[in-house]
Give the backbone structure.
Amino acid sequence: MEEARVTSLRRKATNHAFTTIAALALLLALVPLVGVTLYVLQQGAPALSWDFLTQVPKGSDDPTSGIGPALQGTLVLTLLAAAIGVPLGIAAGAWLAEHGRNKWGDAFRLLLDSMAATPSIVMGLFVFAVVVISTGHFSAMAGGLALGLMVVPVVARTTEVALRAVPDPLREAGIALGATHARTLVKVTLPAAGSGIVTGAILALARVAGETAPLLFTALYSAYWMRGFDKPIAALSTFIYQFYRDPTPALRQQAWGAAFVLFVAVFGANVLVRILTHARSRQP
Amino acid sequence: MAKRSEHPTDRATRLGLGLVAAAVAMTVLAIAYVLGSHAWDAFRFAGTSLATGSDWDPVEPSFGAWPFIFGTLFSSAIAIALAVPIGFLVALFLTELAPRWLRSPLGILVELLAGVPSIVFGMWGFFYLAPKMHETFEPWVLAHAGWIPIFGEVTPGVGFLLAGLVLAIMILPTITAISRDALLGVPRLEREAAYALGATRWEVARTSLRSAKAGLFAAATLGLGRALGETIAVTLVIGNVAHSKLRLFDQGATLASTLANQVGEASDPLMLSALIALGFILFLLTLVVNLGARLVIERPWRKHA
């Protein structure tokens, strides 16, 4: 009897220890989230002004020096990535969902998963070798391509998952009305899967908008407003990389200001999308 | 469907989409081919010492990538050692312990860590964590456990340990999300049966961990794959010194950080080829790790980028 009581106490104690440690682990996981958010907002806020967002970099002692070109560059590069990556990703995902239940589909999925797992710097290196070495110069186009290639497998995957979730009776209804399979896909199935695809695309684009590594030797960096798709272009991330440990305090402050802007844009997109999707489809 | 007479539009659409899917899927083969062929000169110049040699000197020239391979593996190992136990515990908390209404919001919070740009983590590590390491943590550890050779000496704060710590934070959302899904996949009856037998939550958690072990392994492996290739955050906090001693506080460099630092300045074709060889090695490393995860479980990562 005594022995049973001790065992029961020990089991209870182990259980309490487990509960406490798991709760502490969660707190520990949230510390960096809070820490990094507060730190970047606090360090970056003093740099912000209208001039800072709209002017070109003018050197350390000019108070109207700004990150206008970097902001413009991040926007241009992200739009390029969207223009390249989203259509290709949706097309590949649509094929995988509608015609890919065979060994070809399995092979393509394996390759796309490997592509998704390829480090971003390797993607940059690939575009560097293919585009920059052969054209002989760094360019906005090369940067957009590197980011776009990173978007493709993610959009393909979310498209496939979203299309698979569309109930078959919807497809059958389209066919029964005399529509072709292609027309059913465009008019019925894809729109039904629309919100899932859009969510995936926005998350993928937010992620590449914050990327630095694939831009270092594709888009390079520029201190000027965009001069064409075939010329180097600035980005918030590469601006930060350029100046984060500059000996001049004013330039370091500008790097923090750029980090503030980049953080708010990328993190903000993530918060919005995740809150909206979780609100729409409450998990069991 | 395709067997019966197919409408011409359908045929065209199917072939068109299939062509795009094939082209996109071939990209990864193109990456392997392009990097491999550009790296060929360096392989011919240095032979196997390209991977095993520890002297990296573009002037001499001598290209031994071992310090970078070592740095990549060491920093990622630290990250895994920190992030896997915490990630599993968080996943257990989110599936087994937290009040039902809190599970989804807490899950979102952890996932939001993935929404912080890499360079912002790097700056935070460099300006906030590195001084803390240097002033507080390193002297304290060395005063109490300095006789263990794994630590090394007090440094400016940047180094393998800080890189591993920052990487751990960055891969935590991946590990948590995949292991949470794996735990949610444990049959409900199995858990309820254990509860019905009078098991405590810990005892139920232990059986869940056992039945979800393939998914948990995949979570750890995919986290590792991410850590190996992460670039900018690591570049900011590892010190960028070619160095291969197993000492936590020492500065080092990874394959990715070396690429970030040196490709832009490489003018000599042989040097460039050697750098592309570093990228090729990194590519193979992540490929092997991710295919390894895939062998264990059928595509756990399709839901998580």
In short: Chain A has one domain: 71-280. Chain A touches chain B through 100 residues (CB under 8 Å). The longest helix of chain A spans residues 2-44. The radius of gyration of chain A is 24 Å.
